[in-house]
Amino acid sequence: xxxxxxxxxxxxxxxxxxxxxxxxxxxxxxxxxxxxxxxxxxxxxxxxxxxxxxxxxxxxxxxxxxxxxxxxxxxxxxxxxxxxxxxxxxxxxxxxxxxxxxxxxxxxxxxxxxxxxxxxxxxxxxxxxxxxxxxxxxxxxxxxxxxxxxxxxxxxxxxxxxxxxxxxxxxxxxxxxxxxxxxxxxxxxxxxxxxxxxxxxxxxxxxxxxxxxxxxxxxxxxxxxxxxxxxxxxxxxxx
Length: 239
Fold this sequence. Notes:
Number of helices: 10
Low-confidence stretches: 151-157, 204-228
Distance between the termini: 38 Å
Number of strands: 0
Strand content: under 5%
Order of helices and strands: HHHHHHHHHH
Shape: globular
């Protein structure tokens, strides 16, 4: 990493530690990532992602005394930062937290209502990126918004026929995400069985004194969907 790049990283870290979650800090991050060769870019993204995860965890852990507006500004900052470093998983997780935070405070703070379009967009993004359990939750939230006739989906704005078609389309997407989740689960259990069977056969053919060798952890075999849900649970400190 060149001296100028190192200085930019140090400046970015300083802004995070000073809790300067604003556009200027994002521009520093962007300057670190532009005009780099592929290898250096990958190394920088890994390092910056680790820095962001650490700082986001630290800030969210102490967010209980903040106002809703300030929490949302911080979440939106990290959404933008994770998007810049190419961490779609963290980006979607924080988008979900922002939507939940708004929904849980919309009665107390005017203007925080979450529309069905926002939930639907989030659910589609999650589906496209393979985060099926979260996509299901997003589609469910979108359905709830329409069925309760909130926001722009009052009967005078969304005619009954259009509402029925919209509900059906979302239900189909939700069912697709559900089937994909089930399919992934079956694949995971099949892989687990085959690996277990292979271990048993290996133990029979090996000597009794041969040491056991652990295979990859079950968390890894379950795939990125399970890790994403665990991250969402850890980030509940926002609420």
